[in-house]
Amino acid sequence: MTAITTRTVEYPADGLTMIGHLALPAGVDRRPAVLLGPEGMGLSDVERRRADALAELGYVALAFDLHGGRYLGDPEEMLARCMPLLADPDRMRGIGHAALDVLRTESRTDPDRIAAVGYGTGGAIALELGRGGVNLRAIGTVNALTTGRPGETARIRCPVWAGVGSEDPIMPPAQRNAFTAEMQAAGVDWRLAVYGGALHAFHHPPVDHPTVPGVGYHPQHARRAWRDVVDLLAECLPVTEDLGA
């Protein structure tokens, strides 16, 4: 484990001032980078800790914001913002591109070596960046088996890994099948991990506010999904430099 530094970054997107969390590995050299998207509630300490963990592995990591610095713990408020967003690929891409611009302009980032990893709404944004033709080394998603506009998935130029709980009522088997059929038809290098017995947002520790139905934490699968994300990055975006440089 190496020493890291962190800071908040403000940037405009979707008519809001977003407040992201940037985590930098030790050293001064350029590193591969990861854009990290949160669940629909928005950026929280869960994603900040994940960004920090990625920095400890040697990546520049930006956990991006969805709601202008707000965390939407009220399910109705969250759905009222996220459902129209999820129905609008251009808005999702706008939020993703704004965060990606911040990550690319960070002096420690190697702009040619970036992956996007996201959970829920953040994962849908990662997929839309790929469908929009952004040059990414990998896309990893959990709880984000979203489908896109016809033909655009063929613009994804990197491996896609997706994870979902077998008992997730928000991403049921029909949604899984539609997602995998789209990936296959587009010729994408895709993988799907189905975590047995897990609900939606199984990766997210329990929260002290109401949630939408079908959400539940599964600590064992949460650890497995994180290892799968790290393995995806190790395969597609390896940190090859000496971390002590």
Automatic annotation (TrEMBL):
Family: Belongs to the AB hydrolase superfamily.
Name under which the protein is recorded: Dienelactone hydrolase
Native source species: Streptomyces carminius
GO molecular function: hydrolase activity
Residues covered by the Dienelactone hydrolase domain: 20-235
Statement: the UniProt record of this protein carries the keyword Hydrolase: yes
Record-linked Pfam families: DLH
Keywords, comma-separated and alphabetical: Hydrolase
Source species, domain of life: Bacteria
